[in-house]
Amino acid sequence: MGNPVRPDRVTLPELQTAGCITVGILGATGAYIYGNAVFVTAMGATANPLLGIPFVVSGFGVGCGVGALVTPGLLHVLFGY
């Protein structure tokens, strides 16, 4: 698709990548914090930290998908980008 009218702006895939990374990291962090609270509540202090890895990976995957879809439209609505 490119951007021939405004070559100084980033392309849509670049916006999607930035949104994927940022929202994915936020999702993974939130999943880690929430998962850790659930594990400690359910199993006590003996919870194995490796059990939280699926939560973190799932949080990043979901956050990445949402960020890639929402970021370009959100930047367009908020800043006319």
Radius of gyration, whole Å: 17 Å
Q: Give average pLDDT, whole number.
A: 84
Report the end-to-end length measured between terminal Cα atoms: 16 Å
Report strand %.
under 5%
User: Uncertain segments of ≥5 residues (pLDDT<50)?
Assistant: none
Number of helices: 2
Sheet of most strands: none
Helices and strands, in N-to-C order? HH
Count of distinct strands: 0
Helix/strand/pairing category: mainly alpha
- Overall outline: rod-shaped
Share in helix: over 70%
Written overview of the protein:
- The chain is mainly alpha-helical and 81 residues long.
- It contains 2 helices and no strands.
- The protein has helices spanning 12-43, 53-79.
- Helix 1 crosses helix 2.
- The protein starts with 11 loop residues before the first helix and ends with a helix.
- 16% of the residues are buried.
How do the helices and strands line up, and which of them pair or pack?
Blueprint (H helix, E strand, L loop, with lengths): L11 H32 L9 H27 L2
Quickly describe the structure.
With 81 residues, this protein is mainly α. The chain has helices spanning 12-43, 53-79.
